[in-house]
Design goal:
- The chain is α+β, with helices and mostly antiparallel strands.
- The protein has a single domain, classed as Aminopeptidase (3-Layer(aba) Sandwich).
- It is built from 4 helices and 8 strands, in the order ββααβββαβαββ.
- The chain has an 8-stranded mixed sheet with strand order 1-2-3-4-5-6-8-7, with helices on both faces.
- The longest helix has 19 residues.
- InterPro entries: Acyl_CoA_acyltransferase, GNAT_dom.
- It holds the Pfam family Acetyltransf_1.
Length: 180
C-alpha cells in the first residue's frame, strides 16, 4: 500500500475493531478493479448490466485511471482489523461545483450491518473544509436506505439538489457551513 496514504480511523460500533480508510496509489489499481467487480455485480439487477465475454463486468479504464491522476480524485481501501473490507471512490465535481463527490462506497457483505459504512461515510463527509456531493440511483434501494440514514444523522447541513445531468440520480449537497 501507499506508505504516504491518508488514513481515517473511526470508532467502530464493534468494540476493539479498527477501521481504516487508506488512499491507494496506482500500484493498487488492479486491487480496486477486482473489488469493483463485486460492486458491479450487486447493482447489475437494477442497472440491467450483463458481463462481458470474459465473464467480468465492464470497467471504463480511462475513468478508473483518473483516481490516481487527478489530485482531487482518490481510490481508497477500507480495512477492518487489517483485512480488506471494501473501497471508497472520491471524485472532484464534474458539475462545476465547489465540492468533492463521494462517488462510490462498497463494503463486502461480511462487514455490513455493523455500522462501519455509516461511521466511515460520516467521518469523511464531516472532515476538512470541503463541501460534498452524494449521489445514488433512485432504483438502488439499498443505497437509498443507507444514504438516507447517514444523511439524516449528519451534523452538517444537507440539501437536496435537482440536477439535469441524469434524472435517475438523487443528489445531496453536504456543506461545511450553515445554508442561507
Amino acid at each position: 500500500m501507499n506508505n504516504g496514504a491518508l488514513r481515517y480511523f473511526t470508532e467502530s460500533p464493534m468494540p476493539e475493531t479498527t477501521v481504516e480508510l487508506i488512499q491507494t496509489g496506482p500500484e493498487e489499481a488492479e486491487l480496486i478493479r477486482n473489488l469493483y467487480q463485486y460492486y458491479a455485480y450487486e447493482s447489475s439487477d437494477w442497472e440491467q448490466e450483463d458481463v462481458e465475454a470474459d465473464g467480468r463486468f465492464y470497467i471504463h479504464d480511462e475513468h478508473l485511471s483518473r483516481y490516481w491522476q487527478d489530485p482531487q480524485w482518490s481510490a481508497n481501501l477500507l480495512l477492518v482489523d487489517g483485512c480488506i473490507a471494501g473501497f471508497m471512490l472520491i471524485e472532484g465535481s464534474e458539475l462545476g461545483m465547489d465540492a468533492l463527490e463521494l462517488a462510490d462506497l462498497f463494503i463486502l457483505k461480511r462487514y455490513r450491518r455493523r455500522g462501519i459504512g455509516s461511521a466511515i461515510a460520516t467521518q469523511v463527509l464531516c472532515s476538512g473544509a470541503a463541501n460534498w456531493l452524494v449521489r445514488f440511483y433512485d432504483q438502488d434501494e439499498v443505497s437509498q436506505a443507507f444514504w438516507r440514514s447517514v444523511l439524516d444523522n449528519l451534523p452538517r447541513p444537507v440539501q437536496t439538489l435537482e440536477l439535469d445531468d441524469d434524472p435517475q440520480l438523487v443528489t445531496y449537497l453536504i456543506t461545511r457551513a450553515a445554508l442561507h
